[in-house]
Write a structure and sequence with these properties.
The chain is of the alpha/beta class. Helix content is 31%, strand content 18%. It folds into 2 domains: 13-57, no CATH class; 63-211, Type I PLP-dependent aspartate aminotransferase-like (Major domain) (Aspartate Aminotransferase, domain 2, 3-Layer(aba) Sandwich).
Length: 226
């Protein structure tokens, strides 16, 4: 028996493999947005359809952005490094993954401050939010659910805190996308990062981030079109 679904789902729906094989074996799909020929148009159509599905899944509007990445690690690096700069302060939690912690530690070298919300009686101590927020705090980032303890965080409390202090709220939904309903507009989530290979039952090597209209993220990597 396999019990490591928090790392990746091994048993995928047969439709996933069939869809991937159909695209590759058809020899009708090229690089999306890299030409006006039929092969590029076919691919762009699939990409746009997927973006629409992601918008519906996370409760976004047409004008909100969906960006595809290699995984949640890349998405989180883009979100963190693209919203923070020298002199800023970021709040995270001790429940967060290394994909959050290591970028934050890296940014410390260029003058980004950080504090971590700790635990009380084994669960996140929300009272520390008000204790640790500063005048230069710009971002709150946290996991939606811990892949160690299974704790599901109180998103409404966190988003209300961010609205009160005018912070950008970044949510790592790697463990919950596809399992726990998420509506970014209703829950006031500014940026959401996800991976495809866990409870979305996709292959490894896919992921993305979603952000609401008006949220600005400096690109981590430049070049290409998509």
């Amino acid at each position: 028996m396999y019990f490591d679904n928090a790392a990746t789902t091994v048993v995928k729906p047969t439709q996933v493999a069939e869809a991937m094989f159909k695209v590759i074996s058809s020899q009708k799909y090229g690089n999306p947005s890299r030409g006006s020929h039929e092969y590029a148009i076919n691919s762009l159509s699939v990409v746009n359809k997927c973006r629409q599905n992601i918008r519906r899944l996370f409760g976004l509007r047409e004008e909100d952005e969906v960006v595809f990445t290699a995984n949640a690690t890349e998405a989180l690096n883009i979100a963190i490094k693209g919203t923070l700069s020298e002199g800023d302060h970021v709040l995270a939690t001790v429940l967060d993954h290394n994909s959050v912690l290591r970028p934050i530690y890296q940014l410390e070298k260029i003058g980004v401050e950080h504090d971590f919300i700790g635990l009380k009686d084994g669960v996140l101590d929300y009272e520390q939010l008000e204790e640790k927020v500063k005048s230069n705090t710009k971002v709150l980032i946290c996991t939606h659910a811990s892949n160690v303890t299974g704790e599901l965080l109180d998103i409404k409390l966190l988003s209300d805190f961010c609205k009160k202090h005018k912070l950008t709220f970044i949510l790592d939904a790697s463990q919950t996308a596809g399992v726990i309903p998420i509506n970014m507009l209703e829950q006031d989530i500014d940026i959401l990062c996800f991976t495809g290979h866990k409870s979305l039952y996709g292959p490894q090597g896919i992921g993305g981030l979603c952000f609401k209209e008006g949220i600005e993220i400096d690109p981590l990597i430049t070049g290409g079109v998509e």
